[in-house]
Amino acid sequence: MRGSLRPAILVLTAFGLASCRSPEQRAADLVGDLRSPDQESVDKAVRKLVEMGEPAVPVLIPALQDPAAKVRTAAASALWGLGPKARAAVPVLAGALADADDGVRVGVAMALESVGPDAAPAVPALARAVRDRDGNVRLWAAKALGNIGPPARPALPALAEAARIDSTRVAAEQAMRQISGQPPISQ
Predict the structure, then answer these.
(1) In this structure, are residues 126 and 97 in contact, taking their beta carbons and an 8 Å threshold?
(2) What is the DSSP letter of 34?
(3) What is the count of structural domains for the chain?
């Protein structure tokens, strides 16, 4: 009997120790999983980071500057999933709009779009991003500016220019309406 309790006690002790880890420590472990060569593991880590909420943001911020584009993209994806809870990452996200990797820039623009009005400090970077060489970056930057609303007024000239490009026209026009306080056009 005594010998059969030992494995159960070890399992319960291990579970107890794991549950004592702070949310930041658990988030740091998950950020480590973003480096996995297995995309399923990366996706699972992103989902868990999103479920974790705001405690994940401080560990995702440095991941936006990781040498590996795959890690930066996954970090942006997690921040996108956090929406307004990712507002503390806005300054770093704004800087990441200049990333050399197109996929990272798209993910960053999407994350800023999901933050909404609290992404207002990123307006200058988003105004530059609506001129990006990648159409998806332009599209999501325009959407982000629209979600910021009236505080994005300084970006109106950049949006007007972007509205001349077919692939960005609808998003840019929609953003200009939102920034100007007009109701969006239903599609």
Answers:
(1) yes
(2) T
(3) 1
